[in-house]
Amino acid sequence: MSLVADIRTSRELLVNLTRREVKGKYKRTVLGQLWSLANPLAQMLVYTLVFSVIIRIDPGPGVPSGLDIFALWLMCALLPWSFFTAVVTGGMSSLVGSENLIKKVYFPRSALVVANTLASSYTWSIEMVVLVIAILLAGANVLPFVPLVVVAMAVLLVFSLGVALMLSIANAYFRDTQHLVTILFMVWFYLTPILYPISEVAKQSARVGPLIGDITVLDIYQLNPMESFTEVFRNLLYDNRLPSAGSAMECVVWALVAIVVGGWVFDRHQRRLAEVL
Amino acid sequence: MTASIEVDHVAKRFRIYHERNQTLKSAVMRRRRAVFEEFWALDDVSFEIPQGGTFGLIGDNGSGKSTLLKTIAKILTPDRGSIRVNGRVAALLEVGSGFHPELSGRENVRLNGAILGMSRSEIDRKFDEIVDFAGVEQFIDQPVKNYSSGMYVRLGFAIAINVDPEILLVDEVLAVGDAAFQEKCAEKFLDFKRDGRTVVVVSHSLPSLQNMCDDVAWLSHGKLVETGPAPGILDRYQESTRADAHHGADGSSHWGSGEAQIHSVELLSGREPVSRPLNTGDELTIRVHFTAHQRVDRPVFGLAMESHDGVHLWANNTRDTNRPLDHIEGPGTIDCTVPSLALQAGSFRVDAAITDSSTTHVFDYLRDGAEFSVARRPHEEMGGLVSLRGAWGEPAPSAPYAAPVVTAARAEGETEPA
């Protein structure tokens, strides 16, 4: 696949573009890179206040970790989700925003999307390190699971990159895509068990009963790829146990499908980018 | 000579959108993406660009020359045909695109170098040369948004030219920087040529093309008109671009809007019409006979000289030499005197023009208004076109331990001793 070849030949370019993203973002700010932690912290405070203190959602303690802190439980799923949306929205604007460059210089265009993904990964990694430290301080020994968390992060990265490649091309042709995606992400966010445990969905699903044949609401709900990722990250970080093979496989398959389709779409359409932008 | 670029039946189609549907709503409502007309920006163009030397792409606006350059640079993909490029390409379509304003000059050199395809070690190796060439040593750690536009452009240019491409594509960006920087660039282009590299340039400026190009391809409405050695094609192109070109009764070729006309260009030497070959160092007066059919305010007279093989040697006009003229009306003459003809033996042609004060609107341009020759004489300089009257001294013994100092400029070209 030429995407792989492109990435291999433009390693130097990727390094520099990524550095541009990372460094350029917080230039001329006093707090610099610390700002990247401000957003997740604020989200954590607000969501914890609303969903744990006011609405009193109780996901129950992690098994076997014994952790029972809503804020940590939330962040284990919220950080991967935020990374996913950052990669996709950032990837979309990276092509449109580099219009001038694309029209004037030839270089593998996928480098822009990949570099944006890498820059987001850098920020995400810092956030995850902070989260792991917080979990350790809360008394759960998450360290043995860190290697698997890194693997899960890599799989989510591939999935996000695939979606970003696809949507960034779509956005170059139709600028509506970015607005549509904003709405889509809002719906998707609430349809993913980030703020509430999936057990609540199972409860409601059982109440409604099977829809068609054996298919329940829960089955349809679980088609969501981010549901599997959420479960895997929570299992590893919050519960400190291995995720089910089914969820893990689902993540890998989704990632492969996304990157193959995304790479193919990008490949087919990137040659016309200089014209459509 | 091998071809460095082979353009093989290349066609490129563009769509002119009447209603561009970049929104989904309009796409859905119309059930098709857009209402558009197609046109061929390039239509079955084939030619080869030889290796080494400078190749020009000429043509009017919309002739497809920039499209072709972008296609060679792989920014655009041809709809039909193919382009084979033998060697590493760097394109200078717009200098400094891709600079990040908040990053320092140093970081931007790395970034831009990487975009242009340089490896890290290459950038490290050439870093000093780039910074030196651009003349921004003091500011290299400042964010580039604090750069003056000149520094910005110089840095961008310095990076691109140091990519060390076998083929350099240049689009109208030669007119950057001050005179000193322009000279540096011209030198760099000469170095390129000497190293047997290829420069492909698109420009509207005929004089600069005349000076630079060995070969050209002339495009018109997406089709190739002709390709080959530059001088002949550039002349024909220049004449074709003037819809108002006409030929005088004596076969001379003119173009211009005609409010004022040049009848003839007379050459005088010591008040006598020139009838025999001149000598190097003679005084030469060029007299332009004209008629202004109506009052023309603040006209500018210009002269240009070419060698017989089309090398642009000299040009001079009343605006540049700061001799503003108030107005002309009716018939008249105007003289331009060259005190000492600094030309070696050869034959030369003179063009004359009357333009408005901006020199962009041409009332009349007369090609080959006069011809003269300079005789070959003993004890004069020989070789090349201009006579600089260089004088030799006596050989002097050098100090025993010092190497012989040869500081004279390295002899270039086909200079032969007499």
TrEMBL record, chain A:
GO terms for molecular function: ABC-type transporter activity. GO terms for cellular component: plasma membrane. Keywords: Cell inner membrane, Cell membrane, Membrane, Transmembrane, Transmembrane helix, Transport. It is found in: Cell inner membrane; Cell membrane. The lineage of its organism: Bacteria, Bacillati, Actinomycetota, Actinomycetes, Micrococcales. Belongs to the ABC-2 integral membrane protein family. The keyword Amino-acid biosynthesis does not apply. The chain crosses the membrane at residues 34-57, 69-90, 111-139, 145-167, 179-198, 245-266. It comes from Cellulomonas terrae. It is a multi-pass membrane protein. Residues 31-269 form the ABC transmembrane type-2 domain. It holds the Pfam family ABC2_membrane. This is Transport permease protein. InterPro entries: ABC2_TM, ABC2_TM_bact-type. One of its GO terms (biological process) is lipopolysaccharide transport.
UniProtKB/TrEMBL annotation, chain B:
GO terms for cellular component: membrane. It holds the Pfam family ABC_tran. The lineage of its organism: Bacteria, Bacillati, Actinomycetota, Actinomycetes, Micrococcales. Keywords: ATP-binding, Nucleotide-binding, Transport. Belongs to the ABC transporter superfamily. The keyword Thylakoid does not apply. This is ABC transporter. It comes from Cellulomonas terrae. GO terms for molecular function: ABC-type transporter activity; ATP binding; ATP hydrolysis activity. Residues 24-246 form the ABC transporter domain.
